[in-house]
Design brief:
Blueprint lengths: L12 E8 L8 E8 L4 E5 L6 H8 L7 E6 L2 E2 L5 H8 L2 E4 L11 H6 L8 H6 L4 H13 L15 H13 L5 E5 L7 H18 L2 E6 L2 H7 L2 E6 L2 E6 L6 H8 L13
């Protein structure tokens, strides 16, 4: 019996020749192209000012591209109206370096904010959440080790705990992709390791694609399926961790000296 070969699934995300200019200066992003498939864990490395944060924000259109195209599930992000863009963003979670929480609100309230993108403006303003949404939020909070802090204000949490709240808020959206902008930059060694292991676990178990901006090269080497190297707005490396030599790392960072190392290596 003849077996029919399965065709590869189409990319979840396609970034094609994206440019971003600010006030006529040198481009923050310069002809960036790549694609990402479902469940991939992709790290973006490069020096400060390389364009990593701008790249993430162009994907979910927090920043408008100057030229080129971003397509998510085959849909051109730049062509979406306000209503459809809100729907798209409900499929793309985001985790921030400085957490982006409402400090005066509790853990559960901050996590439930992840559902706002799927609600009407009135329902969101009134804080109307279903029993299922509340149960899902509680399950995520418990999974992330925050069950004892459910009703605690977020300004009373440690940095690592705040970042776990941010992860739960992104996951409660039921996203297909999560963008992580320097998620461990403000954390100590122990908290950083916990966060990275949790992100990797959710990518594997829930088949969520992750794009993670990192400064620490050996963290990227340890956790990534694939690494993108960005320097001066250009994509200078796209490959697996095993392909990233010391010479390529030096090229990405534009120096002959070793690239930044993580605060843990095991």
């Amino acid at each position: 019996m003849t077996q029919i070969a399965q065709l590869p699934s189409p990319p979840l995300l396609e970034v094609s020749h994206v440019m971003k200019h600010y006030d006529g200066a040198k481009p923050a992003l310069d002809d960036i192209s790549f694609s990402i498939r479902k469940g991939e864990f992709v790290s973006v490395i490069g020096p400060s000012g390389a364009g990593k944060s701008t790249l993430l924000r162009c994907i979910n259109r927090m920043i408008e591209v100057s030229k080129g195209e971003v397509r998510f599930e085959g849909i051109s992000v730049g062509q979406l109206n306000r209503k459809d863009l809100k729907k798209l963003r409900s499929k793309i979670g985001m985790i921030f370096q400085h957490y982006n929480l409402v400090d005066r609100l509790t853990v559960i309230e901050n996590v439930l904010h992840g559902r706002l993108g799927s609600k009407s403006t009135l329902a969101g303003a009134l804080g109307r959440y279903s029993r299922d949404e509340k149960q899902q939020a509680m399950e995520l909070i418990t999974t992330l080790g925050l069950a004892d802090h459910v009703y605690q204000r977020c300004d009373q949490l440690s940095g690592g705990q705040k970042q776990r709240v941010g992860i739960a808020r992104a996951l409660v959206q039921d996203p297909k992709m999560i963008l992580c902008d320097e998620p461990i930059a403000s954390l100590d060694m122990s908290a950083s390791k916990i966060i990275m292991e949790q992100l990797k676990r959710f990518a594997n178990e829930m088949h969520i694609s992750l794009i993670v901006n990192l400064h620490q090269v050996d963290v990227a080497l340890k956790y990534s399926d694939r690494i993108l190297g960005v320097n001066k707005g250009r994509l200078v490396f796209d490959g697996g961790p095993g392909e990233l030599s010391s010479e390529l790392i030096a090229e990405i960072y534009g120096t002959a000296s070793p690239a930044p190392r993580a605060r843990y290596a095991s």
